[in-house]
Amino acid sequence: MQFAISFALLCCAIAATLAYPMPDDMTMKATPPPKYPLNLEGGGGGQRGDGFGFAVQGHEKVWTSDNGRHEIGLNGGYAQRLGGPYGNSEPNWKVGTTYTYRFPNF
């Protein structure tokens, strides 16, 4: 009798599991590529007695068209030489924009 009750409960559990509706699409969605916030580059160096020069520049895409062919970006930069025989140089600031057009593949 105890075996029959255990078997009946096991059958009910299996039936309940099979009766549960499963989602239609079990595949994972594609992961979008990572978006890096800002493209920065920098460097510096110098020789003994010549001072130390350094520069930093960056680029950021601010707009892309729906079809991906048109793109507008902003550029900026800063450079300066510190020390050396002539002292510190004036800071050099750069600001600009870029426009990119990608021709279609024929």
TrEMBL record:
A biological-process GO annotation: response to hyperoxia
Domain of life: Eukaryota
Secretion signal span: 1-19
This protein's UniProt keywords: Signal
Name of the molecule in the record: Dpt
Lineage per the UniProt record: Eukaryota, Metazoa, Ecdysozoa, Arthropoda, Hexapoda
